[in-house]
Amino acid sequence: MNLTEYVELWRKGQRHLAASSARHLDSLLEHHIIPVLGSRRMNSFDHKVVDDFIRTMETMGTGTATQSNAFDKLSTILLDAQRVGVYDFNPLDGVRSPQYTPTRASIPTPAQLREIREIGDEKFRLLCDLMSGCGMRNAEAVAVNINNIASDNTYRITEQVNQTTKACGRLKHRKPGEYRDVPLPSRIKQEIECYARTYGTIDGYLLRDPRDPSRPFQAYLLQNQWQRLKRDHPSIIPEGIVLYSFRHFFASQCLQLRIPITDVADWMGHKSLDVTFKVYRHLMPGSIASAASSLDLALAA
Question: What's the pTM value of the predicted model, to 2 decimals?
């Protein structure tokens, strides 16, 4: 059996994947893994073959993020093969995985954020507030529901609008029914309630598809408005600022308030703390200076 044949069987067992994750997996298989390794016999894999695969991606100019993702998926497949007895050794033993280091996030200042939110329509302002004030992803923000206000200072994120199905579904990196609670600043709570009073809701949802109110509001509509705003207001939107910068603003403010990075990672829904640390480590204020000062006080006591 070659890798292509094994993957066809293995892929049928990945029924737990969300639609977006399944699409990402299939893309990595189709464009990166199968073209290079598809004809290779399963019993011929070892650490040298995997190392060669990584070097091939490097030679082809594949981005480090894609290299990391492709290696991760290939590793999952080979470890599954080891589990079922194809190998009596670990075919990944000794392999050094591709190292992906995210670039530093571009973050607007509070003054820039205020200017940017004012140039959009009422939907844009609401979504800007949810991303910058609660740390939501844009797909989560467009699924905002007034019934998810869990308390005066807590919003419960339970779903997001899936890019593939165009319907509300489970959260990224979460199983069906799982949720995460995030801080709800009083001003954001007031914005949600004011929008609901002004425009009404459908089953608690504030935003719906303008052409078909029975369907959720789509994240691409937010992206379309963002592109228009960038074109029409180049002096207001700084170079490098993207929609995701609103979410970065949330993380930066939390870390500057010395909120533990573990809490920030949980609120943002990151799969691992390593992701949060790589993106936002430089925002953690004066950790060495603070440690030195605290230790000096303690030693002098």
Answer: 0.68
> What is the three-class DSSP state of 26?
helix
28 SS3 class? helix
Query: What pLDDT was estimated at residue 293?
Result: 66
Q: Are 80 and 41 in contact (CB under 8 A)?
A: no
Output b/e per residue, 160-186; b: 16+ Cβ within 10 A: bbbeeeeebbbbbebeeeeebebbbee
Per the structure block, which two tokens stand in for 128? 């800007």
Q: Please say whether the beta carbons of 58 and 97 come within 8 A.
A: no
User: In the structure encoding, which two tokens stand for residue 274, read together?
Assistant: 């390593």
Q: Which helix (H) or strand (E) holds 209?
A: strand 208-209
CA distance 232 to 251: 28
Amino acid at 152: D
Q: Determine contact, residues 196/146, Cβ cutoff 8 Å.
A: yes
User: What is the reported pLDDT for 101?
Assistant: 64
For the purposes of burial, counting CB atoms within 10 Å of the CB of 233, is it exposed (0-12), middle (13-18) or buried (19 or more)? middle
Residue with tokens 């800007």: 128
Query: Using alpha carbons only, how large is the chain's radius of gyration in Å?
Result: 23
